[in-house]
Design a protein that fits this description.
With about 425 residues, the chain is α/β, with parallel strands linked by helices. The chain folds into three domains: about 10-205, Up-down Bundle (Four Helix Bundle (Hemerythrin (Met), subunit A)), CATH 1.20.120; about 210-300, Elongation Factor Tu (Ef-tu), domain 3 (Beta Barrel), CATH 2.40.30; about 305-420, Nucleotide-binding domain of ferredoxin-NADP reductase (FNR) module (Rossmann fold, 3-Layer(aba) Sandwich), CATH 3.40.50.80. Helix content is about 50%, strand content about 15%. The strands form two sheets. A six-stranded antiparallel beta sheet has the order 4-3-6-1-2-5. The protein has a five-stranded parallel beta sheet with strand order 9-8-7-10-11, sandwiched between helices. A hairpin with a 2-residue loop joins strand 1 (about 210-220) and strand 2 (about 225-230). Helix 2 (about 20-30) runs antiparallel to helix 3 (about 40-60), helix 3 runs antiparallel to helix 5 (about 70-95) and helix 5 packs antiparallel against helix 6 (about 100-125). The longest helix is centred in the middle third of the chain and has 28 residues, at about 180-205. The radius of gyration is 24 Å and the shape is globular. About 35% of the residues are buried.
Length: about 425
């Protein structure tokens, strides 16, 4: 039987929202002087906001252990939501407290910097929002030529400056510094976050695998296949994505995520299929074979999801357009599983790897349903396994709107949420 629920995500939210801020709140509650009773609530808001800012910074380091539990898209979603919540609490803190001198100055600088970065990030770096709110997507498209991928990353890093300003703001407040238990947790959380961030940068600088681009060809309109040969084997699983950069090429030196087409456990080569959606991906046609690259990974939860549901009898995959890429890697690495693939694209020429799909159709366990334009709900439901639906797992890949639609359809037709997994890449 497949599992009905994955509790890791809910537990992660609970720990971040309640457990992490709790020691700071408790120590403040005991140690704050009665003279500041009117500001108690606002001070608590400030402490919680700082704790959540540190969580957001930690999540930005992409800890692999957490990725395998909840997935990097969910980590980035939590990162974004915690940043929004922290700025809101910072507003409540600022509006309900009084200060002067450098205490006020550092606090104000941090607040306005965070507020500005929040507005910028909601447009350019919160794909989970722009994929759902059309006006945000339109503004993002309009301004995209002015703010390249690397510029956005460096602007986003100003959150570190804002956090340092908050740190200084706190240590300038004498009556707060006098609360030794609070300052223990304050320094502990700050130090752990700093060490984690520096360690992640060290890993990126020293431990990333060197690789060489061995092939770069167009395989469809606006889609390129890149083949990389890493100098050492990376720890990637089928269905994973890796982060790639080309340090010697201007505009391509920051890491960018791409899904694997092939099974990395069966080959030393890494094959990527990439659609030219942004300035980074549109520049890839200029990268010549032999160009050095940096690679880190893998990330993803498609294969861990399958491992967690090892009792499944059937695998149903619903994919659209470029979203099929990581699922090709899954199909490639599971030749003996009963797999149904429903694959659509806007145009015939956008259906990727027809030769690979034709070869897989020789497997007795593989069934392909492929067409131009979306499937009708009834078409897919009619073809779903009739025997042992409780032992069927569903993998979705494609635009966020599409995956959300099929999740609703599957839930209406007897599947449980624990049987369905999709990874959205609208970061």
């Amino acid at each position: 039987m497949v599992k009905s629920h994955n509790y890791a995500l809910g537990l992660t939210w609970a720990i971040i929202l309640f457990v992490i801020p709790l020691p700071m709140i408790q120590t403040l509650a005991v140690g704050l002087p009665a003279a500041y009773a009117d500001e108690f609530q606002a001070i608590y808001f400030g402490a919680i906001a700082y704790a959540w800012m540190l969580v957001a910074i930690y999540l930005s380091t992409r800890p692999k252990w957490l990725d395998r539990l909840i997935g990097l898209p969910n980590m980035y979603l939590i990162h974004g939501m915690m940043s929004i919540a922290a700025v809101f609490l910072a507003y409540l803190h600022q509006s309900q407290t009084e200060s002067m001198g450098w205490i006020k100055t550092t606090g104000d600088w941090a607040y306005w910097l965070l507020l500005s970065l929040l507005g910028y990030s909601l447009i350019f770096m919160a794909g989970w929002l722009s994929s759902r709110v059309k006006i945000v997507q339109l503004v993002k498209s309009w301004l995209a030529p002015l703010f390249k991928h690397e510029v956005s990353i460096w602007i986003h890093r100003l959150n570190l400056v804002a956090t340092v300003l908050v740190f200084i703001h706190v240590i300038l407040i004498n009556y707060v510094v006098a609360i030794k238990p609070f300052m223990f947790w304050f320094y502990l959380y700050s130090g752990l976050t700093l060490v984690s961030y520096i360690w992640s940068k060290y890993q990126n600088w020293v431990r990333n695998s060197n690789a060489s681009l061995t092939n770069n060809v167009g395989i469809a309109d606006n889609v390129r296949e890149l083949e990389l040969q890493p100098s050492s084997k990376i720890s990637a699983l089928p269905g994973d994505y890796i982060f790639v950069s080309f340090p010697t090429i201007k505009g391509l030196s920051e890491l960018h995520p791409f899904s694997l087409v092939n099974s990395p456990t069966d080959s030393s080569k890494l094959i990527l299929a990439i659609r030219g959606d942004g300035d980074f991906t549109r520049s890839l046609d200029q990268v010549q074979p032999g160009t050095p690259a940096k690679v880190t990974g893998g990330y993803g939860r498609y294969q861990p999801f399958l491992t967690e549901h090892s009792g499944y009898q059937n695998m149903v995959i619903i994919a659209g357009g470029i979203g099929v890429v990581p699922l090709l890697s899954i199909i490639d690495s599971h030749p003996d599983d009963n797999i149904q693939l429903f694959y659509t694209a806007h145009r015939q020429s956008d259906l990727l790897y027809p030769e690979k799909l034709a070869d897989w159709q020789k497997r007795p366990t593989f069934r392909l349903f492929q067409q131009v334009g979306r499937f009708q709900d009834a078409e897919v439901v009619r073809q779903l396994p009739k025997d042992g639906q409780d032992n069927t797992i569903f993998l979705l890949g494609g635009p966020s709107k599409m995956t959300r639609h099929w999740r609703r359809v599957l839930l209406r037709n007897g599947a449980s949420s624990g049987q369905i997994y999709a990874e959205e890449f609208d970061w």
